[in-house]
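Q: What does the assembled structure look like for these inputs?
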Amino acid sequence: MLPNFAYVRARTVEEALEHLGGEDTRVHAGGTDLLGCLRDRVFAADKVVSLRDVEGLTGIRRAADGGLVLGGLTTLAEVSRSSEVRGLYPGLAQAASAVASPQLRNQGTLAGNLCQRPRCWYFRGEFHCAKKGGAQCYAVGGQNRYHAVLGGGPCYIVHPSDTAPMLLALDAAVRIVGRAGERAIKLAEFFVLPEVELARENVLAPGEIVTEILLPPAPGLYSSYRKVRERGAWDFALASVALALRSIGGRVTQASVVLGGVAPAPWRAEAVERAIVGTTVDEKTARDAAAAAVEGAEPLEWNAYKLPLIRGIVEESLRRFHDYQPS
Amino acid sequence: MIPLTLRVNGRERRVLVEPRQSLLRVLRDELGLTGAKEGCHRGECGSCTVLMDGVPLYACMTLAPEAEGREITTVEGLLDGEALGPVQDAFAEHDAFQCGFCTSGQIVAVEGLLRANPQPSLEEIRTGVSGNLCRCGAYPNIFRAAGRAAELRAGRGGDS
Amino acid sequence: MKAADYYLDGPAPETPEPRQRQDRWGETRVVGRPLPRVDAYERVSGSAVYPSDVQLPGMLHAAILRSPHPHARVKRVETSRAEAMPGVRAVITHQTPGADIAWYTDREGATVGHLFEAHCRFEGEAVAAVAAESPYQARDALEAIEVEYEVLPFTSDYETALEPRAPAVRDGGNRASEPGVYERGDLAAGFNAAEVVVEETFRTPCELHTPLEPHGCVARWDGNRLTVWESTQGVYPVQSRVAQVLGLPLANVRVIGHYVGGGFGSKLRPGKYTVIAALLARQTGRPVRLFLSREETLLCAGNRPANRMRLKVGAKRDGTLTAIEFHGLGSGGAYSGSGTGILDWQVRDLYRCDNVRCTTENVYIHAGAQRPMRAPGHPQCSWALEQVMDELADRLELDPVELRLRNLASVSQGRGGIPYTSNGFRECLEEGARTFGWLAARSRARSEDDLARGVGMAGGLWIAGAGGPPSTAIVKYFADGSVNLNLGASDIGTGTKTVMAMVVAEELGVPLDRIQIEHADTATTQFATASGGSKTVPTDAPAVRAAALDCHNQLLDMAAEELAVAPSELKLDGDHVVAVGDPEKRVALREVSDFRRRQVVVGIGYRGPNPEGKATCPFAAQFCEVEVNRRTGEVRVLRFLGAHDSGRVMNRATYDNQVYGGIVMGIGLGLTERRVLDTGQTGKMCNLSWHDYKIPTALDVPADVTSLPIETEDVECNTVGAKGLGEPVTIPTAAAIANAVYNATGIRVWEAPLNATRLAELLAEREA
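A:
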């Protein structure tokens, strides 16, 4: 049962921004994460501003530079079905179709998937944890099977999004609008670690919304998304890896490798990238690169399994790329 | 409280709701349509699945005001008078349920799947009902029933 | 817990002998066929009214405020702000007159806790309740109740609950009962005689039932009469408990449970919610609906206790078992339910072994109470026993099926050596293996690919499944040849109504669509025990058969008078009665004058006693094939086969469905499910949602599941020859998966659930 709140339906972005002034005013896109957070009292809402009737926030179109522009309110189902996404960025279609369940993909939006709050049970539950202003991160000494092995501290959430690692690997940007105006920033600057910003997972200021996701052109791009979860649907990643590679004659010229489900933000595995650029990613390279993926990892009591898991999916994904041999 | 006009199973229904009320609670408490079940009210079981403009969604994760102006179809809306629709027939024929509590949601999910994809493969069927838990574990029969429903629907000429 | 506790609460009425001899069925016309359910229309159309669908004029909505702490004392409850909120009609606490009701009892029956207990011994203990005009207002009001708690130290890890520093759950410490000890033969001699010994420690997680319909009810008073629509597996246990705690005659408590959205053992009895709803309804003079939230059902509506099991088995080179030693530990929570009830039964009973010692230790922890969950104790025991058997087979270089065949028990050793009424375990193993293609699949070389395939199997038996008295059924045969079948049992989704109607159809030749069923209503049907423990068909089907035969005989008696032929010379032929020797001598039932005058024939049937000195058990063997990703430890179940000896198949469709369902639930135990408590810090439950408590989805179970009925003829168990099915189908599943994973990877996982969160590391360790 949700607490009570006022509800307004904005007709334009400007109107939505007008409403989004108050501290506990919440924006409703697909609503799937919002309603969950309100039910669990993760945060309060005195007013919910629905973007349902705002035009121009959905749909997928070609950008002038040959890339794609995805409306922030495009549903995950639309992203995964889109022939353009599948053709140009198959990894993004894979990531979008790996989210939650069919119904939630029909309702949840791409921007919402990037901005969703973490699933840490201490954060969602009745625990006054550090992220909610409390004194401690309960995951450190508690049930931390699903928590961060990289980039943690002082909070050990993992970023829950499937599309975020893929979009980061694709070097996507987001268009953000707020009362102060509009800006486009790369996803690399969008997500923040708890050591920088404990209460939030990204740089969105209160009252700002993500209106578009901008994908750069994709010529010669290979992309893939691989997710491991405990059950086949309705489950967040134990670990995932997004690859975006360019190659000439099978030799990697440009690589972006991003891990999901293992750090408080999508985690760029630069050591893997370094290990494969300039190579044809043969078996040994793949194995060595995979080993490098967990460099610096600091598992907690119950999540050391994530290390072999990360190595396993990185190696598997790299070998799949090798076998695919883009022309 | 705000007034809403909802279009449910082809009928216009006027209700007065609090904005926080889910579509599910309005369907059940205000409109007396109890086919969609409340298993969790958290978007985690699928027993409240309804079609909104033909697409399966969780009614529990939909604020009632968000449903305004949309065409809402519940399991009751799949009946043709008293007669079962093709997906319902297939579920009965293949014993695709035990306790039956998740069944409305399963049936609506399959209906939504078949509207988008009239000839799904087994894997597409499994994915199509992967947002609907069945604790009794009738899944193998649900898969068979969905396949049979595709045949029945084709035989009866498409949308039901 | 004793097996009997599973289905009976308190004394049962004496049962008369059945009125007539009932020959065993030969060829059946209706029974056994895969017929659609008689209530399929209601269940697929959305028109079935589940208790949570009941809406009454003026109905209020209630909610319960629960302790957020695993151990705390309520020092103060302030309800005035909640009472003043819009729509709120009642707020009750332990201070409310009439709400101070004794609830928990110890083994001796002494009160050890109340409906609203000021000393909260688990997270989720009821502290207060409200009734309001809308469910939202009720929840708002809960948040306005101020409670001051004295938070106390807690014990939530059952494995350390007996350590001296562990805070005591109850006066007298955390040992909930004297250790259970079972012993036969000479254990030391047995191990001395062993040539191979396998010893391991196993763990199974705390599982939650999570039926799709939450627990709860709607309660309404008419004067001093109470009607409760409850989501329950048995209306009579609800009636008796509610009547007892409210001090009402049974006749004044009507409980109706026509449909129930799953229970799996968690709805065998009423909950506090039932009584709280009744109290709120009485106080407000309005009907009250009280259904738990999903989070509440996860927190405090029962569980299958976690278990730690140490198992040591000795065998000779030829595979003969010489000794088994078992130690089990578990907790039923903070109150009286056991954490180790019938945990060791299969060790005692499944395989032939002369020297056996089982000990069980049952402890208290500050957590919600267990409730029986589908085959209590058995899947856990199977996880240990069947993995040890697999390991033993490996070390002896014997086929796992062969090892089991070499250790078949001819009698029920756990019951002192009495015979079974039937035992199809050998056939389950042999025919299951044959149909599965076991030998061919086993002999396939282990692949060295990333994806490794393996096959595994496990056997099992269920302690109960015999059913037994009491059960009373009434069949009314109307003047037009249609029938009303009246029985008290609930249909929890197993197809009870359909099977019982088929029994009537078998005996009276009435088509199913002319049989109306009245059931699960304490005001209008006969006493029945709750539907659980795999006993509904073997308990109630014989009673229904007897009632139908009673009708049948009365009809023949009347026709005999009309035709002037002895009743023994007559038979029922559709809506006619015909002389066996002379088909010309026939009369339509509607023309039988006595029947026309009476308009109805009422047949009454009782469940007769079970045979003395014999045991009736269902047996099982399951086989599966899995695929394991060697890099990640991801496990995919590719196919399953369940070979089950549950005696006669009553309806092949609902039978197969039970087999599928049991396997699906077993996959949950094997691969995905575990309750997580924040043991070291707060003792609170972490995974209070279906997102985090992971039951299998459609993508976690194979489409390729085969049900292979092993239809042993059991002429002794009861008059229909059926044994229980609902529990055995989930007993061997998880162990079969673990054995298949071993076959694929060479790695044994002793702790369930088995998935990438364990296997990834084990695979990497071996790699290194």
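Residues 1-15 of chain C have pLDDT under 50 and may be disordered.
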